[in-house]
Amino acid sequence: MIYFDNVTKEYRDGTPALEEVTLSIAPKEFVSIVGQSGAGKTTLVKTLLAELRPSSGSVFFESVDIHTLPSTSLHHYRRKLGTVFQDFRLIPNKTAYENIAFAMEAAGRPDDEIESDVPYILDLVDLSDKAEHFPWQMSGGEQQRVAIGRAIVNQPDVIIADEPTGNLDPVNTFEIMEILKKINELGTTIILTTHNKGVVDAMKKRVITMEKGRIVRDDPNGHYIL
Amino acid sequence: MITGGAKNFVRSGSVSFATVLIMTVTLMIIGFLIFVSAILSHTLMAIEDKVDVNIYFHTNATEPEILLVRDQLAALPEVSVVTYTSRDQALAEFRERHADDQLTLQALEELGENPLGASLAVKAKDPGQYEGIVNFLSDEEGTAGGSSGVIDRINYFQNKVVIDRLTSAIRATEGAGFIIVLLFALASAIIAFATIRLAIYTARDEISVMRLVGASNMYIRGPFIVAGIMAGLLAAAITLILFYPIAWYVGSTASGWLGGFNLFNYYVGEFPKIFLILVGGGVLLSGVASWFAVRKYLRT
Predict the structure, then answer these.
(1) Looking at beta carbons, which residues of chain A come within 8 Å of B211?
(2) Residue in B206, B213, B300 nearest the CB of A74
(3) Range with the lowest mean pLDDT among A72-81, A115-124, A208-217?
(4) Which residues in A39-74 are b (16+ Cβ under 10 Å) and which e?
(5) What's the pLDDT at B106?
(6) CB B214 to CB A79 under 8 A?
(7) A106 and B8 in contact by Cβ < 8 A?
(8) H helix or E strand, kind and range, residue B55
(9) Is the dihedral of CA A153, A155, A156, A160 positive or negative?
(10) What pLDDT was estimated at residue A93?
């Protein structure tokens, strides 16, 4: 489904962020990418989101090299991915309902579908009573649940969660991981980057360890080992 | 898209307020430039109107001969108006002008006959064309059967220096005025442009999120352009409303000082044109600025 073929990314000053990364991810997999800060986790995710272009190598999604896609059709590709970030990245002047609804609008979904799906998703992430709240009126855990709602509302093939629990307390972390686990059980591929050992170990799923831009370990039922 | 843009505009209150404020100042500068150029062209027209060339005829020139010259001049494309003053009219005007000067009037009576010749006052469409008209008359004088011998003198040669200076001054003022207007308009447009870019800069995270959820470029750009156009429209409305009392005040107090130019009458009379320039300018400026500002964040 996803294949990184010998991907290298160097920044302008020549610092390597990724070095010859080759990696494949199958459909419905739950993959945790771990490593210290600066190991290259986020850079790897950004090349998959087509936010960063590799210096060499290719990133394939369903046999298509995504970096050959013209910028005008990139949004069609991005609709197959759902993204969740450490800093939530909600739109500050939109309510919880609108933050989720606009992902559907952006995908060109009709109004009646939006009106029926958004309340369902809000219920799924247990935020029905906060539908009209703006991000600044919600806790970190609630904001992250809105972000997950936004990520799943268009039923993407893959959810990319970049340090989704980095800003959360243990209770909220547990809740978010439970939601991601459930989404994965329903058939969505999950790519999680984190440096939370407890989260990774509890999952008992595939763990890829990165160090200085390289993959140093890839365990099918792994643990977070430094 | 339109409701999205309107919501964006209302919810980002202080940024929208700043944008509208800067756009209003920009449009007011453009409006003032329209007023200044109207005042300038009114003044120039008034000066131009005062410039003419007078052709004085000998006292023995007959009326048909003079009228022939008048018709020849009137047929020239560069001539705007030719006014004929007969010998009797010239005398009457002379008497009227010297009504309080008994000595001059007595001297006139003693002469017994009218010493004044008839004259033609010629107005050209453009001050630069007087020389051509005078040259035409000089050529005519040289040809037999033309106006040969009937013309006493042409005051153009006495006024030539003044007319030339005035012509070049008018040209220079018009040229400089145009460049100044252009520079001011450009400077204020750049400021408005920068403000809108700044407003959109505050939304760069929002744009990046929109891209990540798979929004098309048009979907992302639309609400920003709508919000920009709304700022432009609001600024144009505020400017048009503010100009009403300003034009009234200037019109009623400074009309005499501006050579009879009433700003309020001009504003009301030319309202459709000013409306189109300000509304069109506001919408175009903010729309284009928004388009370019968002484009920066749409590049991968």
Answers:
(1) 75, 78
(2) B300
(3) A72-81
(4) bbbbbbbbbbbbbbebeebbbbbeeeebbebeeeeb
(5) 84
(6) yes
(7) no
(8) strand B53-57
(9) positive
(10) 82
Q: How many beta-carbon pairs under 8 angstroms link A with B?
A: 60
Partner B, chain A 5-44, Cβ-Cβ below 8 Å:
none
H-helix or E-strand containing A131? none
Partners of A78 on chain B (C-beta within 8 Å) are 211-214
Q: How does the average pLDDT of chain A come out, rounded? A: 90
Which amino acid is present at A2? I
Q: Tell me how many degrees the CA angle A80-A83-A88 measures, rounded to the nearest 5.
A: 155
Instruction: List the single residue in B with minimal CA-CA distance to A150.
Output: B213
Distance CA B191, CA B29 (A): 12
In chain A, residues with a C-beta closer than 8 Å to the C-beta of B209 are: 89-91
Other Cβ atoms less than 10 A from the Cβ of B184: the count is: 16
Whether the Cβ atoms of residue B78 and residue B132 lie closer than 8 Å to each other = yes
CA-CA-CA-CA torsion sign (A137, A139, A145, A151): positive
* Angle (CA) A116 A117 A121, round 5°: 130
Nearest of A48, A43, A49, A45 to residue A11 by alpha carbon: A43
What pLDDT, in 10s, does the model give residues A84-106?
A: 988 888 988 889 999 999 889 88
Residues in chain B: 300
Task: Supply the mean pLDDT for chain B.
Answer: 80
By the CB < 8 Å criterion, does A83 face chain B?
yes
Hey, what amino acid is at A194? T
CB contact under 8 A, B211 and A107: no
A174: three-class secondary structure by DSSP: helix
**Structure-token pair, residue A67:** 């970096």
Strands (E), chain A: 2-10, 16-25, 30-34, 56-61, 64-65, 81-85, 158-162, 189-194, 206-211, 214-219
**Averaged pLDDT for residues B175-181:** 78
Which residues in B lie closer than 8 A to residue A157 (C-beta atoms)?
none
CA distance B181 to B202: 32
pLDDT interval class at A32 (50, 70, 90): very high
Q: What is the pTM of this model?
A: 0.62
pLDDT for the residue A159 = 94
Residues in chain A: 226
Does residue B185 or residue A151 have the better pLDDT?
A: A151
Q: In what order do the strands lie in the sheet with A30-34?
A: A81-85, A158-162, A189-194, A30-34, A206-211, A214-219
CA distance B29 to B24: 9
Q: Which residue shows structure tokens 């059709």?
A: A73
Mean pLDDT on A150-166: 91
Closest CA to B275 of B240, B230, B231: B240
| DSSP secondary structure, B108-174, as one string | HHHH-S--PPPEEEEEESSGGGHHHHHHHHHHHHHSTTSSTTTEEEETHHHHHHHHHHHHHHHHHHH
DSSP β-bridge partners for residue A23: A4
